[in-house]
């Protein structure tokens, strides 16, 4: 956990120092529709969970901003794996660093950028029973990239401070590296729908 906050603090410090702008801090909460991708689990369903965390955004102009966050994110899958009903619970603290491109100076923005995830929970249930996960343990670090859209209500409006958006992140590394259980790479992907508030 300490690594996460150090990473966020360094990122925010670098951004604010380099562009000398005020940072708008906020919180977000939302729903996750996560999935693991790979040949061995292509028929498995995704896992529905939630995300919650803090964000900081520097808007350098009416058209551009940078967002950094520390987001607790429930991911994994829930479905058939090797003929058995299984639930793989992979929970991360994700640290996105996203460029935000505001359209026409409005509150509507396109987002894109990388994300690093720190694994904080790794559980497996097979047919409703806890499974010996030492057989295949997830990697502690997950890298992903992606983007989405967001909208924040501007200063002076009735809903000032509120924001909402949707984001899709695709994993870039094998979740179960150095493991012989899966014949192919297994990667994360997650669609999140979020509601936020900027202070």
From TrEMBL:
Alphabetic keyword roster: Signal
Residue stretches making up the Outer membrane protein beta-barrel domain: 20-176
Organism whose genome encodes this protein: Nonlabens ponticola
Name under which the protein is recorded: PorT family protein
Domain of life assignment: Bacteria
Stretches of the chain forming a coiled coil according to its record: none
Pfam families: OMP_b-brl_2 (PF13568)
Range of residues in the leader sequence: 1-20
